[in-house]
Amino acid sequence: MRLLIVNPNTSSATTALLQRHVAGAAGAHVMVEATTARFGASYIADETSYAVAAHAALDAYAVHAEAHGEPDAVLLACFGDPGVEALRQLSRRPVIGLAEASMREATGLGMFAVVTGGRAWGPMLERIARSWGFGGALARVHTVEPSGAELAADVDAAASLLGAACREAAVGVQAVILGGAALAGLAGRIERSASVALIDSVAAGTRAIVRMARADDRQMRTTRAAAAWTGVSDALSRRLG
To answer: What is 2-97+205-240's CATH number?
Structure first.
């Protein structure tokens, strides 16, 4: 099975981190490939960068698929899943993002909270959770000031800060999601001090997409509306056409 990680930000360091953790979680039977957005923000931290990232994810998928062939499944590696429905339609492959996968896993345990980096993500993730029907199970989003990229730059300091945030967020819930592509692996450093289940969003996304690929869960089978496209990349234009 070929699994493609689409990183919708422009950080190649984040892509490398993701590929390492996803490959470890997916198992030897999965060939993990990864691609990085060619344009946009180095870290998705607000509504503007989120909107641009949706286009960047589609472009990154189209360019990679044209060069290397279609993957069997796609993991959209941003905790917030920009453009996930469009990517499902474009690829006609099993696709899931980190936030949807994590929230689905967390709701199986009961009420949950989210801990992530970057203040702007609070209202954004609350809106996203409501749109997928998880709003009733989401108790709170606890954000810390540093972005995920800043946290990843000093993992020891990040583990201390996020550990405290997870303990605060755990009150009255059955699970806490540690959300963010750049936070992959950090849950393992702090889970012993957590009083509830601690979910690593990258690990949850990997588990979900492997299950979907095995089931051949292709959510989008309908054809796209015909339209003329201007200004998108050649690879994306050919796929859209």
So the answer is: 3.40.50.12500
